[in-house]
Design a protein that fits this description.
Elements: E1 2-6, H1 10-22, E2 26-30, H2 33-42, E3 47-51, E4 53-54, E5 57-58, H3 60-69, E6 74-79, H4 89-92, E7 98-101, H5 106-122
Parallel strand pairs: 1-2, 1-3, 3-6, 6-7
Antiparallel strand pairs: 4-5
Length: 129
């Protein structure tokens, strides 16, 4: 599965990337909204791991763009803040499939990634320009 990890903390981005690579996935990293949008415009991904707060703003426009152009792309929002405390991410940001709180438990991430991989087999990502 092709994964885009959008995280500005280089250490955490490395841990997430190494973990996903160890599970057999191809990983691309981005640290800003602008870089993430560029990646989404040029490469088809199956999974998006998206930090909520990035140096150039709140990252929800990235999930909105991904949902509009790649409807089957699965998105995991990573946050260290109290955003979406009652699971309302799907209502406020329809492109978000799951929310994981930092520090991220790799076992939890692995379970979601395994589910997303199965879903990607059933519903392949088909992006529009």
């Amino acid at each position: 599965m092709r994964c885009l990890v959008v995280e500005d903390d280089d250490i955490l981005a490395g841990v997430l990337s190494d973990y996903l690579t160890g599970l057999g996935h191809d990983v691309t990293r981005a640290a800003t909204i602008a870089a993430a949008l560029h990646c989404l415009r040029t490469t088809k991904f199956d999974l998006l791991l998206l930090d909520y707060r990035l140096p150039d703003g709140i990252s929800l426009p990235v999930s909105e763009y991904a949902a509009a152009t790649c409807p089957n792309l699965r998105t995991i929002l990573l946050t260290g803040s109290g955003v979406f405390p009652h699971g309302e991410a799907a209502t406020i940001a329809p492109g978000i499939d799951w929310v994981l709180r930092k520090p991220v438990a790799l076992a939890d991430l692995g379970a979601i990634v395994d589910y997303a991989a199965l879903d990607a087999q059933l519903h392949p990502v088909d992006c529009v320009s």
